[in-house]
Amino acid sequence: MASIERMTITLPTEMAGIVKDAVEGGDYASSSEVIREALRDWKLKRELRIQKIAELKAEIDRGLEDVAKGRVKKFNAQRIIQRGRKLLAERPSV
């Protein structure tokens, strides 16, 4: 097991109540378990965000390379709007 470091944290009343309710409801054995799970979820979301940013930067680099090599089309706002609407219509509902 990894070493444990004791920390003291301060939470807004509402958040503290959520943590206490989770423990009192039997979902967790302790407040520490609630916080550890929340941090694991945060870490995963943060890693996904970092990955998405890297993907977006790569797309920007590809676009800049296209511009540098002259692989561009004349700007047409109506075509962009139509494509955006088509992509939006094809998106699965969440």
From TrEMBL:
Q: Answer yes or no on keyword Disulfide bond.
A: no
* Hydrolase keyword on record: no
- Which CDD domains is this protein grouped with? RHH_NikR_HicB-like
Instruction: Quote the SUPFAM superfamilies the UniProt record gives.
Output: Ribbon-helix-helix
- The chain positions of domain Ribbon-helix-helix protein CopG read 6-45
Which InterPro entries would you find in this protein's record?
A: CopG (IPR002145), ParD (IPR022789), ParD_sf (IPR038296), Ribbon_hlx_hlx (IPR010985)
Taxonomically, the superkingdom here is Bacteria
- Keywords in UniProt for this one? Toxin-antitoxin system
Q: Which GO terms describe its biological process?
A: regulation of DNA-templated transcription
Family of the protein in this entry? Belongs to the ParD antitoxin family.
Record PANTHER family? ANTITOXIN PARD (PTHR36582)
The protein in question is named Ribbon-helix-helix protein, CopG family
What is the protein's species of origin?
Alloacidobacterium dinghuense
